[in-house]
Specification:
The structure is a homodimer. By secondary structure, the first copy, chain A, is an alpha/beta fold. The first copy, chain A, folds into two domains: 11-19 and 266-385, Aspartate Aminotransferase, domain 1 (Alpha-Beta Complex), CATH 3.90.1150; 31-264, Type I PLP-dependent aspartate aminotransferase-like (Major domain) (Aspartate Aminotransferase, domain 2, 3-Layer(aba) Sandwich), CATH 3.40.640.10. The first copy, chain A, has helices at 22-28, 38-55, 68-77, 93-104, 122-131, 154-164, 212-220, 231-239, 249-265, 267-288, 314-325, 351-367, 374-385; strands at residues 11-13, 60-64, 85-90, 108-113, 137-141, 143-144, 149-150, 167-171, 190-194, 206-210, 303-307, 327-329, 340-344. In chain A, the strands form four sheets. Chain A has a seven-stranded mixed sheet, sandwiched between helices. In chain A, strand 3 (85-90), helix 4 (93-104) and strand 4 form a beta-alpha-beta unit. In chain A, helix 10 (267-288) packs antiparallel against helix 13 (374-385) and helix 12 packs antiparallel against helix 13. Chains A and B meet through helix 1, helix 3, helix 4 and helix 9 of A and helix 1, helix 3, helix 4 and helix 9 of B.
Chain lengths: 393, 393
């Protein structure tokens, strides 16, 4: 399914939305049901249990009917009181937006900056915690979607937060389910993701996990200004097996099926598959002669940031790839506007998707006059992808 | 489709979610696409234009990825500054919740109470406005879903708000698309609804219309505490043809198709169909010997509140109707707990749905020992439904 291209079916190699497997699509069109009845209660219970396995958490987990930004807002709004200091890494568009959001919710962001394309250093977090022992939480964008950078030291940061008794809030929107993130083991107090990334669902659902340590802060918070994102209300209703507000029932059907697929594959196999696909993309792009935007040790396995050939803007390149080769790629943002493009490597991907993407980038850059090493690029991708096991879906 | 009952297909006669037409379901499983590309831009533009026709507004309209509560929160949060006086009718569970929400957002609710089952009187609104000339907005639950009461004087209230220069915010969640509500003509400044009611879509999308008068208040508001529900951000992004956050793309496909169906039928025909179906339900329930909970002049055309036979709790009755007759009905809430049930009359409904619902209520109440006038009930429904035109879908 993934690589067939027609008027109505494009291959979407975006950092979300992603290609939804037919099995998940079919699940989505089951007849609606009441969200206060026993049938939905059973589905919600299944969904939560399976999602907890994907999060590797035994603590509370809530599914919201919002995009990922809604879940991030939920995590932060339920923690932050006016003036609270929240440490946050800023190394790209989405982490910058997170720092802004902290301000909007009344908090005071303490920013640990690193260059776009680089991950923050644990040492810098340690210093800022020492200088601000009253900071309430440390918030990390685990995978900066705009630059394709993963914070590989997240486990170490989790240890630091445990030692310093500060909450760790992780934005894992573009990575959870595609790379290692054992939420409990790594001391992540609140972990946020969304349905349309590595979870292989259509967009519209998001997730927040909440540790007992996070609940301590939430329960003493004086004013809860949101109804729709109020975690205590979610907890109360979930105690009866329901959501406080009408959930996107059809998307819950889809999520239930997607979780089955994720757990059938198994997390280690799934993470390995994403890594192999990422190796194929990075290897091929370098072989072709294109630069990579992220430092080698922080390159994401779920989104690859690739430099455009000199003199070719990403808008023009992506438009050609979209219209002539039927593949949607992610664009450049802000500081890197025009200079790079992004390849999503999320969820329902394997050899057909990666080979056709590499091939399309090779052809389109050639169409635009770039002299790339095309056969080397294809061979690099093929060689990496040969390590993939037989496809499951 | 609607009336077939099997293990996987129940007829849902709830006040939302409702039965989604197959045409809308099929639209939902179109392949995903990027939400920043030209294809989605075109779909979003179509969806907004069509939804504006259903709202009968030429002003701004935004589609959010939330349930209805999210849209209500969006409307209120973008208006209310700490301490603002907001007039609100309270005559049921959902309007009570609205008054609570106003408090949570920092506002001061000025409550116009009426008994459950009754609509508020315009005179009471006039009095409270005169006594509180500094009140910022009047917020009305047009259709109180918990009691099946429609505020039939809404147009009059709109005139009052215009004269007194106060914003009118209308919660039309369980009614818009099923009964008259010309947003601009009736001076409604912000109108809120959700996808899973009369709009015939799965749940997960919601809507907020914003008049120029509402924008004046929003634009001078000092602090915007939400990112996810920030109307100025929606307006900014919609200027480029996009949503600020990842939209539930599949649900937008569904909504686009549902809007086509709504506009093909035409609003007057659609409202007439809902009224005829409501007449059939009310007539049949009274003929059967059951009481109606709402005062005659305020009975909703989209949700009927029916008294349980004496000695039979609604939980038991609904469970029997669900399991033996395959129909989901709405339950009782709070003050009326145990005493009544609700029949949703929303969206994709006509003779098969209403006749089988009336029949199931007649059978189930008989099963539980109630001596109802069954043939009179069926005949009352049939007679009303005979006024329906030929079915379109």
């Amino acid at each position: 399914m993934g690589c067939s291209v027609s008027e109505t079916q494009k291959l979407i190699m975006l950092p979300g939305p992603t290609n939804v497997p037919p099995r998940v699509m079919r699940a989505m069109i089951k007849p609606l049901m009441g969200h206060r009845g026993p049938d939905f209660k059973e589905i919600l219970s299944q969904v939560i249990n399976k999602t907890k396995k994907v999060f590797q958490t035994k603590e509370d987990l809530f599914v919201l009917t919002t995009s990922g930004t809604g879940a991030t807002e939920c995590a932060l709004q339920n923690i932050i009181e006016d003036g609270d200091k929240i440490i946050v890494n800023v190394n790209g568009f989405f982490s910058e937006r997170l720092a802004e959001a902290i301000k909007a919710y009344g908090g005071q962001p303490l920013v640990v900056s690193s260059e776009w394309g680089k991950a923050p250093r644990t040492e810098d977090f340690r210093k800022i915690i020492k200088a601000n022992p009253d900071a309430k939480a440390l918030s990390v964008v685990y995978n900066e979607t705009s630059t394709g950078v993963t914070v590989r030291s997240l486990q170490e940061i989790g240890k630091l937060c445990e030692e310093e008794d500060i909450l760790l809030i992780v934005d894992a929107i573009s990575i959870l389910g595609g790379d290692k993130l054992p939420v409990d083991e790594w001391n992540v107090d609140m972990c946020v993701t969304a349905s349309q990334k590595c979870m292989m669902c259509p967009p519209g659902l998001s997730f927040v996990s909440v540790s007992p340590k996070a609940w301590e802060k939430i329960s003493v918070k004086k004013q809860h200004r949101s109804f729709y994102l109020d975690l205590p209300m979610y907890k109360k209703y979930m105690g009866d097996g329901f959501t406080p507000f009408t959930p996107a029932v059809s998307l819950f059907y889809a999520l239930n099926e997607a979780c089955d697929m994720i757990l059938e594959e198994g997390l280690p196999a799934r993470f390995a598959r994403h890594q192999i696909c990422a190796d194929a993309v990075y290897g091929a792009m370098e072989a072709l002669g294109l630069g990579l935007m992220a430092e080698p040790e922080s390159r994401s396995h779920t989104v690859a940031a690739v430099a455009c050939p000199s003199g070719i803007e990403d808008g023009k390149l992506r438009e050609l790839i979209r219209t002539k080769y039927g593949i949607d790629l992610g664009g450049s943002l802000e500081k890197w506007k025009g200079k790079m493009f992004r390849i999503g490597i999320m969820g329902n991907i394997g050899s057909p998707e990666i080979m056709s993407t590499v091939s399309a980038v090779a052809s389109a850059t050639a169409d635009l006059g770039f002299k790339g090493r095309i056969s080397e690029a294809l061979e690099a991708a093929r060689k990496a992808l040969a390590r993939l096991p037989a496809r499951m879906n």
